[in-house]
Write a structure and sequence with these properties.
Number of strands: 20
Strand order of the largest sheet: 8-9-10-11-20-16-15-14
Low-confidence stretches: none
Strand content: over 45%
Distance between the termini: 32 Å
Number of helices: 3
Largest sheet: 8 strands, antiparallel
Structural class: mainly beta
Radius of gyration: 18 Å
Length: 282
């Protein structure tokens, strides 16, 4: 019998495509949190990395936020205005409390976001894996953050704290690092400089023999700009706090939904757009 909090193995048509770890044993400096790793294509190519040497706090696929009322749920150093990246004892943790649903193709999870001995946010996370074609599947990832305190909780980023172009925080996918940087494109733009910090219905990241296509699946999610890195490391996220902090009033909930196409091979614009539309509409 499977233990209630054992890792979840996601499957598409019987094939394992992702492993979700609920209670990782990690040092506080990495902001411990559940994550998906490895995530693979249907042919078995890994498209995530866990604690790579360049950023050991990058944990596959998950939700990571560098500033929740000054607490670091991203891991590593904290960007401090007029000081830059600084080592602080301010790390929080996302604590898995249980599954409301757990099946081979997905789950519904409850989490508590805790820092300095207090709970700031309560999260419901819904993750589902669905087949699209013989060579592509979709990871549907929704997270809902509810403020459980008596005061507004605000979410920030290095960008809102004074570091231009660094609006990371929210859904984040650390992709596979290869000898050459992956290509990145949207329907209207090419390259990291053209895609990073902009809004787009979808963003494609294409490696040697795989492609990831990230799509915002709600109007609110599509209003968030994309955070993209390819040259330094391969990673894509959806920015919760780009130009200003995101405030969540007591009892209110912020919801975001990202659907990611995981495909074998290198997709072109037309195929990436078609699969993104198909994935979001399912």
């Amino acid at each position: 019998m499977t233990a209630p909090d054992a890792p979840v193995v996601l499957r598409v048509a019987g094939r394992p495509v992702g492993r979700y770890v609920t209670r990782p044993e990690l040092p506080a400096r990495l902001s411990p949190r559940p994550y998906l790793h490895p995530v693979t294509t249907l042919a078995g190519t890994a498209v995530t990395e866990l604690s790579p040497a360049d950023h050991i706090h990058h944990l596959g696929v998950g939700v990571a936020v560098p500033d929740v009322e000054g607490h670091n749920f991203w891991g590593g150093r904290t960007f401090v205005r007029d000081r830059g990246p600084t080592e602080l004892d301010n790390h929080g943790a996302q604590r898995h409390t249980g599954f409301q649903l757990r099946d081979p193709d997905g789950f519904v999870e409850e989490l508590r976001w805790v820092a300095a001995g207090a709970e700031l946010l309560r999260e419901r996370r819904t993750v589902a894996a669905t087949g699209l074609t013989d060579t592509a599947w979709a990871l549907d990832f929704t997270f809902s953050l509810t403020n459980v305190t008596a005061e507004p909780v605000t979410i920030g980023s290095p960008a809102t704290n004074g570091r231009p172009g660094a609006a990371y925080g929210g859904f984040f996918w650390r992709a596979r690092k290869e000898a050459s940087a992956p290509d990145v494109f949207t329907a209207a733009a090419e390259g990291e400089a053209g895609v990073h910090g902009h809004r787009a219905d979808w963003v494609a990241l294409a490696g040697a023999d795989w492609t990831l296509v990230f799509a915002g699946a709600t109007d609110t999610t599509r209003r968030d700009p994309w955070f993209v890195r390819t040259a330094e490391y391969p990673g894509v996220g959806s920015s919760l706090a780009c130009a200003e902090r995101l405030a969540i009033a007591p009892g209110d909930t912020a919801v975001r939904r990202i659907v990611t196409v995981v495909s074998d091979g290198r997709l072109g614009h037309a195929d990436a757009a078609a699969l993104a539309r198909k994935a979001v509409s399912q």
